[in-house]
Amino acid sequence: MKKGYIFIVLTALLYSTQEISNKMLMQNHLDIFQLNFIVSLIAAVLLTPSAIKDLKQKNMKIKGKDCGYFAINAALSIPISMSLLSLAGKYVQASTSAVIFSANAVFTVPFAYFLLKEKVNKKTLISLIISIIGVVIIFNPSKIIQGSEGGTDLIGIGLSLGAAIAWALFAVVSKMKIAKYGGYIFNCFVFYFGSIMLLAILIATGRPILSGINFQSILVLLYMGIFIKALGYIFYLGAIKLTSAVTASMVFLIKPALATILAVIILGEDIVPTMIIGIGFIIVGSYISFSAKKSEEKSEENIESTMVVELEREKL
After folding, report:
1. CA 252 to chain centre
2. C-alpha to C-alpha distance for 130 and 291, rounded to whole angstroms
3. Which of 28, 96, 218, 255 sits 20 to 30 Å CA-CA off 245?
4. Could you report the per-residue pLDDT of 82-126, keeping only the tens digit for each?
């Protein structure tokens, strides 16, 4: 169990540098589709050995229907969500986009309700409302009304919000069949399909594929592909395996505050009072959502334990 919590902390630390890395690459004038193509391809290659191993163990063959499912998830998570998040780095601070993106777990609620028919309890609804209030506070409507700078902030926050919503939809759609494939197979194919889609966009629009990348950019791209995407996900899977899916979701409870602290240290960003208040609301909302899921998990465990006891009694 201790090792599981170490994995949670490591995952949160790596995931908290996502927006900071994006910001650094945006400052080097890298194309958003170009950087996401390279990062996704690196992650796909690194996950390939584990995916092949799982395919052999499951004796699974990937068919056309599987590829269609992977392609849908790839489109939502990489060309849409990750590209919107990268683009947001041009308009707002890394800390702002990181905090708003961390609210994606709350936005899964309506999608899960309509697509997976999951029930929405009172705690989940309260967490959704509190998190939305936090996002509105970060939007800082009074500043937006003031003029050009507020308008720029509005664009960046809107892009971050779009990235969070797209990722929330991806999280729900992926939940439909991820148990069938397992994490390594699913994510490896999603990264490959995402890379192919981005490569098609780069070629069709005449954007650079590898040109314009300096030494600093190479280091950041390698860091993102190896540590944030590949190792980050391996740690996250390890956390789920050693604790539970609900406990592992603590990653997104830690990330808002941690990403903000790292953005101040690494990028020297200034944190305004509205940002701190907004972060507080989002963390509280996420915690309520986490505690509600934890209660559900305990209830399910109790039901399973009761069923086991009843079966043992019947045997006697």
Report:
1. 8
2. 14
3. 96
4. 999 999 988 888 888 888 888 787 777 788 888 877 777 787 788
